[in-house]
Structures are given as structure tokens and as C-alpha cells.
Specification:
- The protein has about 220 residues and is α/β, with parallel strands linked by helices.
- Helices cover about 25% and strands about 30% of the residues.
- It has seven helices and eleven strands.
- The protein has a nine-stranded mixed β-sheet, sandwiched between helices.
- Helix 1 links the parallel strand 1 and strand 2.
- The mean pLDDT is about 95.
């Protein structure tokens, strides 16, 4: 019988993204798969590098804020050693705006959401044969549409198109661009998964985002 997998979920930062509620949902998704989840509301949970290395997955849910080197470096080391890292929206890729090492590891950084919340847009699946997006068709969401600065090394699984009809902004004269929404990458021996959807818990609970997140967690932990 395979060993039970273990995940650390660390939540906090800006309350507008409902980090505690999202942490509860992510724990639920992993518990459904038979995992043991350890949930903390302090970045000090990252300090023990040897403990982090015993995990299968680290899930940050922390929008904005600051991270100290004593909290950051153990995560960088643990993921590089083979621990998975996975998350969504601002909880992973708008976590620590002044920390370029975090951005290098995660693969991207939020810079804007033209139109703010309530924009209706399409998510286009680009890798239908990947285990995260297998059998999932293009779908629409009504939420924030993240414009991001993205590491060119990521494997893009899904995109969204800018500019969105009716949403003005200084980006519009640049013409059409396909912005990554879901991606994977590697950090040393570790797997990294990210999805830019998830402004609040209800966005993640809705299918197919719920399934995408659960699959992303399992992929990152392998």
C-alpha cells in the first residue's frame, strides 16, 4: 500500500482573496484523495527546511505581504529538492511583490486585471492531453482576468485572450495577446503548478476549476 501523501497549506495576506476559505477548500480536495494536510496561518511554517523536505506538496495562499529570508529560503530549497509547489491566483503569483526569487520559482507575477472583478472571458485549453487538462474543453468564467508577466520557460496548459471586448485600458493598442492562465514548470527536481483563476473561493469551487486544481496538486506532488 503506498505511503500517505502529506501537504502543507499556508494561508494569509490580503483578506479579499478569502485565504482561509480557500485553504479549507484545498484541504478538502486533498483529503478526498486520502492525503494528510497541515494548515497554518503563519509564514513561520516555512522555516524548518528539513520538515519541508519530508512533504509531498506545499500550497501557498498568501496575497501580497512580505517574506523573510528565513521563511523563503527553506521553500526554495525544499522545492528544488523535489517537493511539489502548487497554487492559484494572487495566493501564489502575487504573493511577495518585492521577492524576485519567489517569482522565479513560481513562474510568473500578476501585474493587472483590466476591468477588475466581473469580467466574462474564455479560458482556452492549449494542452488537451496533459493530465491536468485532459478531457476539459474551453470554458468561460466571470471573475478577474489576470494579466501577468510570465517566465518563458513554463509549459502553458491554458490561455485567455486580451483585450477582452468592452474592457478599455492602455494595453489595448498593443493588439491581441494570449495570456497564460494555467501552467507547469520545474524548479530543480520539484514540480510547480499554477492557475490564475481563483479570485475567491466560489470561482475555485465551480467546475472545471475545482477539477483542474485537484489534478494540479496531484501532478505537482509526483
Amino acid at each position: 500500500m503506498p505511503d500517505t501523501k502529506r501537504a502543507l497549506i499556508v494561508w494569509g495576506g490580503w483578506d479579499g482573496h478569502q485565504p482561509e476559505l480557500v485553504a479549507e477548500l484545498f484541504a478538502e480536495l486533498l483529503n478526498e484523495a486520502g492525503w494528510i494536510t497541515d494548515v497554518h496561518d503563519s509564514l513561520d511554517a516555512f522555516r524548518d527546511v528539513e520538515h519541508l523536505k519530508t512533504l509531498d506538496l506545499i500550497i501557498p495562499i498568501w496575497t501580497m505581504g512580505k517574506i523573510e529570508s528565513e521563511q523563503l529560503n527553506p521553500v526554495l530549497t525544499a522545492v528544488e529538492s523535489g517537493v511539489g509547489l502548487a497554487g492559484c491566483h494572487g495566493g501564489m503569483c502575487d504573493s511577495f511583490r518585492d521577492c524576485t526569487e519567489w517569482q522565479f520559482m513560481t513562474g510568473g507575477q500578476w501585474v493587472a486585471h483590466p476591468g477588475n472583478d466581473g469580467v466574462r472571458y474564455t479560458v482556452n485549453i492549449k494542452e488537451p492531453n496533459h493530465e491536468v487538462t485532459n478531457d476539459i474543453a474551453d470554458f468561460e468564467v466571470e471573475s478577474e482576468q489576470y494579466y501577468m508577466h510570465v517566465d518563458p520557460a513554463v509549459q502553458v496548459l491554458a490561455t485567455t485572450r486580451f483585450p477582452t471586448n468592452g474592457v478599455a485600458g492602455p494595453h489595448v493598442p498593443n493588439g491581441i495577446v494570449d495570456m497564460p492562465v494555467i501552467w507547469t514548470k520545474h524548479w530543480g527536481k520539484g514540480r510547480v503548478f499554477y492557475c490564475s483563476l481563483g479570485h475567491q473561493r466560489n470561482v475555485i469551487e465551480a467546475e472545471p476549476v475545482r477539477t483542474i486544481m485537484k489534478r494540479g496538486f496531484l501532478w505537482a506532488a509526483k
